[in-house]
Write a structure and sequence with these properties.
A two-stranded antiparallel sheet has the order 1-2. The chain has two domains: about 15-75; about 85-185, no CATH class. The protein has eight helices and two strands. It has helices at about 15-25, 30-40, 45-50, 55-75, 90-100, 105-120, 125-135, 150-155, and strands spanning about 135-140, 180-185. The radius of gyration is 32 Å and the shape is elongated. The protein is mainly alpha-helical. The longest helix is centred in the middle third of the chain and has 19 residues, at about 55-75. It starts with 14 loop residues before the first helix and ends with a strand. Pfam families: HTH_23 (PF13384).
C-alpha cells in the first residue's frame, strides 16, 4: 500500500530557526529527523526527503505526521521513560547500609537480603552487574602460599599404603584465607 502525499508539511519554524535547531541537535537521531524536515521545507517529496536520510518511506510519513502535530518536540523520539528500577533510590541506600554492616557478603547472602527485606529478585547473570553499578566490588578469597618442600616432606613417597590424614596437609588448611564476598568499594 502506497501512502498518498496528503497534506503539506507545517512550517512551525522559519528555515533559519530550523538550521539553528539542526546545528544544536545533540543526538544523531534528532539531527536526522530535523534534516528530513529541512528537505521537506526545500520542496522534496516525502519519499525523496526520507531517502536522503536512509530510512523507509513509511518512516518519513510518520515523522512528517509527528512534526505537523507537535513541531520540534513532537519530532523527538519518545522512549516513555523506560522501566522503573526494582530498587528505589531509598531502598538502594538501605541495602548498601545493610551490606556495610555485614561485609564481605556472599552472593547467596546478597540474594537472601534482597528477597527477604526488599522483595526483589535479580537474575543470577545480572546480579553481579547490578551490584557493581551501585558501588559494590567482589573480593575473591586471598590465595595461600604453599610451601612445596613442606608438602614433599609430609607425603610418604615410598610407602605403598595410602597416606593417612591427607585432609590435614598444609595446602588444605583454610585458616589464613580471608572471606570472599561483596563489599563496598573504597
Amino acid at each position: 500500500m502506497v501512502m498518498s502525499d496528503s497534506g503539506p508539511v507545517q512550517r512551525h519554524l522559519s528555515e533559519t530557526a530550523l538550521d539553528q535547531e539542526l546545528k544544536a541537535a545533540e543526538s544523531g537521531k534528532h539531527a536526522r529527523r530535523l534534516g528530513f524536515i529541512k528537505n521537506l521545507y526545500q520542496g522534496d517529496s516525502v519519499s525523496d526527503a526520507i531517502a536522503r536520510e536512509g530510512r523507509s518511506t513509511s518512516t518519513g510519513y510518520r515523522w512528517r505526521k509527528k512534526w505537523n502535530e507537535g513541531g520540534v518536540d513532537g519530532l523527538l523520539p519518545d522512549y516513555g521513560g523506560g522501566r522503573p528500577p526494582k530498587l528505589s533510590p531509598a531502598a538502594e541506600t538501605a541495602f548498601l547500609d545493610e551490606i556495610a554492616q555485614r561485609q564481605p557478603v556472599s552472593t547467596a547472602t546478597v540474594e537472601a537480603i534482597l528477597k527477604t527485606e526488599f522483595d526483589v529478585e535479580y537474575a543470577a547473570d545480572y546480579l553481579p552487574r547490578k551490584l557493581e553499578s551501585i558501588g559494590l566490588t567482589y573480593q575473591p578469597p586471598a590465595r595461600e602460599r604453599v610451601d612445596q618442600q613442606e608438602i614433599l616432606e609430609t607425603v610418604e613417597w615410598d610407602d605403598k599404603a595410602p597416606v593417612e590424614n591427607t585432609g590435614r596437609h598444609p595446602y588444605n588448611e583454610q585458616s589464613s584465607r580471608t572471606e570472599a564476598g561483596w563489599a563496598i568499594a573504597e
